[in-house]
Amino acid sequence: VRSRLRSARTLQHRHFPAIRWAVPHVLPEGLTIFAGVPKVGKSWFALDVARAKADGDMVLGQECERGDVLLLALEDNERRLQDRFRQITNGGDFPDNLDYATEWPRLNEGGVDDIAAWIESTPNPSTVIIDTLAMVKPVPTGRNKSAYDHDVSALKPLHRLASEKRVAIVVVTHTRKAAADEPVERVSSTLGLTGVADTIMLLGRGPKESTGILYARGRDIAEFELAVKFDNFRWQVEGDPKLAFAGDTQKILIDAIANGATTPKDMELATGLSGENVRQTLQRMVKQQLVYRHGYGKYALPAWTDKPTFLLDTPHHTSHSHNG
């Protein structure tokens, strides 16, 4: 027993290497489950991450350090993948350090071993993207094994490989149709899938066309939820979902409050809106937690509007660092 135990004092003085990031603050090393509803744009997101990491370019407003990438685009053929690369690179060069495949063995039939072989064969392995899990997940065998156990045994080797080699392995899958209060429970399949992963990332539809909500949490990242917009074949950060998806009148009042208006009368004078419009809109905004009341008849903005997260600080980057 003693051979398995360590003193907490020895842990105090150990030094561990810094986390390696595929995308800073967003996608760390380890195993990530990236899930979303069908046709929401998961593959576009995965492709953009692959391209940005290979090029050392921007994605979600974050600058990636250049690294070698393996993209398993298993629901595409080469013609379709070529078209998508042309669109996402805006006619520029495709990355020369991004390897791809449109067919791959199932994980238990050599698939994990082949990923490991790629990692060993490339000088700077950083990111592996499997799009989608269904194409490589082992076919269940044996009646005595539960669906949960199948999911755990399917992903454990990938998790071990990502940890040992310190690469980011992203597995793309679907969310379930049924609603769930807990974000992790939206991922299709059992909790065995999400329990093995280091990071869970979800892409859901936003309230407006070409918008989405990107949610993530994990062992090495701060939990976040962001409004995103699909623009020019890439997902761009729009900000906090409450603020980004607010109505036009609501945004006018948010600007007025940010500039010092605290009462409905102040807001009338600052915006030119009618008193009735201001009061009715404020009532809706309180329910939506876009503003809150303080004191008698005064309103203020929540902390998230004036203290943006690391991602909200970053301006949009729509150009590519490579030639185009």
Features of the shown structure:
disordered C terminus, alpha/beta, 324 residues
Question: Helix and strand layout, with pairings?
Answer:
Elements: H1 8-12, E1 21-23, E2 27-28, E3 30-36, H2 42-55, E4 58-59, E5 62-63, E6 68-73, H3 78-88, E7 98-101, H4 111-121, E8 125-131, H5 147-165, E9 168-174, H6 191-196, E10 199-205, E11 211-218, E12 224-231, E13 234-239, H7 241-244, H8 248-258, H9 264-271, H10 275-287, E14 292-294, E15 298-300, H11 303-306
Parallel strand pairs: 3-9, 3-10, 6-7, 6-8, 8-9
Antiparallel strand pairs: 1-2, 4-5, 10-11, 11-12, 12-13, 14-15
Helix pairs in contact: 8-9, 9-10
Could you describe the 3D structure shown?
With 324 residues, the protein is α/β, with parallel strands linked by helices. The protein is built from eleven helices and 15 strands. The strands form four sheets. A nine-stranded mixed beta sheet has the order 7-6-8-9-3-10-11-12-13, sandwiched between helices. Helix 3 links the parallel strand 6 (68-73) and strand 7 (98-101). Helix 9 (264-271) packs across helix 10 (275-287). The radius of gyration is 23 Å and the shape is globular.
Compact description:
The protein has about 325 residues and is an alpha/beta fold. The protein has eleven helices and 15 strands. Helix 5 (about 145-165) links the parallel strand 8 and strand 9 (about 170-175).
